[in-house]
Amino acid sequence: MHRSDNIFSKPIAHVGDFRFDQQVVEVFPDMIQRSVPGYTTILEVIGQLTAHYHQADSKLYDLGCSLGAATLAMRRNVNLDGCEIIGVDNSQPMIERCRSHLDAFRSDTPVTLQCKNIQDVSIQNASVVVLNFTLQFIAPKERDQLIKSIYQGMLPGGILIVSEKVHFEDSDIQTLISELHLDFKRANGYSELEISQKRTAIENVLLTDTSDQHIERFKTAGFAHAQTWFQCFNFLSLIAIKGSSND
Ligand code: GEK
Questions:
Q1: Ligand 1 pocket, CB under 6 A
Q2: In the prediction, which pLDDT does 246 show?
Q3: What is the mean pLDDT of the chain?
Q4: What does the H/E/C string look like for the chain?
């Protein structure tokens, strides 16, 4: 049974930058479920897209894997020979707990976990790459290079799945949609104090792009196709597909 997230429920004298430490690991499944609208649907569809796009003798990457929710969704849907899943996260407590989550289920598909910066991973022979709410934690000026190097390590016909919190150019829309998201958090039991202390902790750490910036970045990197497939409020999931030789 996972513990419920009450990290920001009491007044904190100085709210520091948010970190994926042991305290967060303990409550992470509850935190992400109550904060990210559509999280369960996105995981299910990551599984579905894996079933469609994984290729025999290829690698599948879950970059910023946390406790392995997307890794598990991928692993359940791999049915071709010679596949390996690589999960990467730079939080040691996340990686340790991720290993025990993965070991709780039996599978013939090997999973390698690496505790490192996803910017230091050399992507190779990849049919499926997932960044499920991770790109938003990379310094904005370094995002183009990361997506480019992922593209270069992907096989023709491979798919990149990127889920992100976004912002909107239109300030009225931004205000309205942020409010809808806050209502979602209130409905999930977060108090005004929790919401505002979490916002202070995360505002220098989670930096959003617009959906157009994401699509533009995929196109510039070389992806033949790019599309948002899911949106709920300010949370999106996008896909980008590397052209096959006939495209
Ligand atoms: C899920 N994908 O449940 N290198 C490696 N890991 C990083 C880096 C980095 N530079 N920056 C952040 N992380 C998961 C959820 S959570 C999303 C992903 C959220 C890691 C960080 O340690 C954390 O585990 C993860 O990215 C982001 O499907 O909490 O909003």
A1: 20, 32, 64-66, 69-70, 88-91, 94, 117-119, 132-134, 137-138
A2: 61
A3: 93
A4: CCCCCCCCCCCCCCCCCCCCCHHHHHHHHHHHHHHCCCHHHHHHHHHHHHHHHCCCCCEEEEECCCCCHHHHHHHCCCCCCCCEEEEEECCHHHHHHHHHHHHCCCCCCCEEEEECCHHHCCCCCEEEEEEECCHHHCCHHHHHHHHHHHHHCEEEEEEEEEEEEECCCCHHHHHHHHHHHHHHHHHCCCCHHHHHHHHHHHCCCCCCECHHHHHHHHHHHCCCEEEEEEEECCEEEEEEECCCCCC
Tens of pLDDT, residue by residue over 24-50, are 888 889 889 989 999 999 999 999 999
Q: Domain-by-domain residue ranges, the chain?
A: 39-167+206-241
Which residue type, as a one-letter code, is found at position 219?
K
Mean of the pLDDT values across residues 120-126?
98
How far away, in angstroms, is 68 Cα from ligand 1 center? 10
Other C-beta atoms lying within 10 Å of the C-beta of residue 40:
12
What is the CA(13)–ligand 1 centre distance, in A?
A: 26
Atom of ligand 1 nearest to the CA of 91: 22
Residue 170 has pLDDT above 80, yes or no: yes
pLDDT per position as a tens digit, 156-165: 999 999 999 9
The verdict on domain 39-167+206-241 having CATH code 3.40.50.150 is: yes
Q: What is the pLDDT of residue 5?
A: 81
On the question of pLDDT at 6 being above 90, the answer is: no
- Is pLDDT above 70 for 236? yes
Beta bridge pairs of residue 128: 60, 159
